[in-house]
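STRUCTURE:
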């Protein structure tokens, strides 16, 4: 089942934002996230806010969804203007899910067109959609490219059939190179998402997945350790002893192999779980999250952030559609982050970036910890001496522990 929404303060029905969102707005980019909450099958490890396409009716149905998302785009434009935010063009757009490409490409193009109609796109803007390899065709990818999409992120996850079966993935490994080539033919940049640490996945299985993914010459690779969330099918299988549990040492060894092979193929890490062929191929939308920029999240359960104000939409697609049909904000709650919380989050996120964390921006506790982190082999000495804290490979494996040492107790 999808995870629960956080607790927070009530969100106003008119969507107006407090004056603090205007502070420093000229220094922040503006992005749009669009959540498509439909999947053909719910994967056993997934706790995202997704629903199989046939589960819902009325305004939340797959057929009606594009119109509902456009209604929130329209609502967002009105609320931002009424809140006094200056006109800003969109720097990045990311369609996630779920499986966005379960919707017709025309629907995704319609949602993007509505956003561009309100705000416009910056020159060279990044526009991404996630996709399953079996949910695209040459024609759909060409239509997306023509509509302004620049990038597609395929959920490959593994190249090994028995691993895909444990994950409940619906595509066959043979479909991935086809989808990648179709995306290339359409002029789209290609990212591949991989998951390691699936129960029953051997080191040789993981090597096969990495080498296979790299043979397709992607522009970007994300490699995430499998996290088993409570309430998922996979968590229940583990409790019953039907599949083995998670092994942290196995995760670490597989991360090290990923970094070795991906780096040897010419891609460089820029965030702990992400590698790109060039700096220009890094996912700018995710970088905006990690750097605390502004984004509006469209869709049920989507989260938004502007100037230290964070809010999240109601989760169920029917409730979401009903609120927008009534002209009300779909937000379920929001919170205003204080300076201390924002600083903790900044350190947590920026420490994971290949560009590093500015040492002078740390407080006395953090600055005092740097020498010990160098001595323990967790941060690179040369950048640290120049004022940037950049994780070593060992540091990336222990990123959470590094952050704890940088923060006051």
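SEQUENCE:
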């Amino acid at each position: 089942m999808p995870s629960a929404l956080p607790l927070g303060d009530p969100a106003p029905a008119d969507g107006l934002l407090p004056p603090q969102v205007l502070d420093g707005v000229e220094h922040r980019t503006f992005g749009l996230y669009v959540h498509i909450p439909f999947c053909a099958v719910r994967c056993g490890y997934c706790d995202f806010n997704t629903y199989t396409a046939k589960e819902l009716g009325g305004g939340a149905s797959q057929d009606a969804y594009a119109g509902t998302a456009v209604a929130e785009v329209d609502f967002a434009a009105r609320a931002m203007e009424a809140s006094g935010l200056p006109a800003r063009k969109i720097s990045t757009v990311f369609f996630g899910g779920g499986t966005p490409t379960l919707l017709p490409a025309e629907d995704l193009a319609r949602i993007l067109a509505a956003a561009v109609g309100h705000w416009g796109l910056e020159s060279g803007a990044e526009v991404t959609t996630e996709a399953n390899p079996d949910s695209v065709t040459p024609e759909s990818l060409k239509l997306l490219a023509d509509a302004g999409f620049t990038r597609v992120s395929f959920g490959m996850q593994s190249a090994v059939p028995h691993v895909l079966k444990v994950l409940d993935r619906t595509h066959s490994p043979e479909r991935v190179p086809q989808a990648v080539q179709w995306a290339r033919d359409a002029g789209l940049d290609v990212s591949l998402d991989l998951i390691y640490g699936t129960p029953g996945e051997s080191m040789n299985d993981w090597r096969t997945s990495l080498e296979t993914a790299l043979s397709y010459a992607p522009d970007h690779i994300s490699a995430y350790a499998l996290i088993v969330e409570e309430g998922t099918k996979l968590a229940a299988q583990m409790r019953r002893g039907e599949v083995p549990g998670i092994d942290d040492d196995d995760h670490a060894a597989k991360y090290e192999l990923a970094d070795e092979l991906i780096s040897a193929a010419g891609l460089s890490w820029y965030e702990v779980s992400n590698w790109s062929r060039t700096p220009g191929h890094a996912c700018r939308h995710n970088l905006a999250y990690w750097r605390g920029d502004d984004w509006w999240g469209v869709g049920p359960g989507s989260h938004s952030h502007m100037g230290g104000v964070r809010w999240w939409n109601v989760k169920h697609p029917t409730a979401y559609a009903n609120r927008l049909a009534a002209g009300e904000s779909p937000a379920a709650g929001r919170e205003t982050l204080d300076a201390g919380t924002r600083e903790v989050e900044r350190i947590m996120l920026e420490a994971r970036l290949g560009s590093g964390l500015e040492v002078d921006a740390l407080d006395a506790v953090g600055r005092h910890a740097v020498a010990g982190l160098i001595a323990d082999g967790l941060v690179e000495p040369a950048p640290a001496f120049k004022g940037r804290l950049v994780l070593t490979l060992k540091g990336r494996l222990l990123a959470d522990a590094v952050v704890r040492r940088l923060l006051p107790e």
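REMARK: The longest strand covers residues 121-131.
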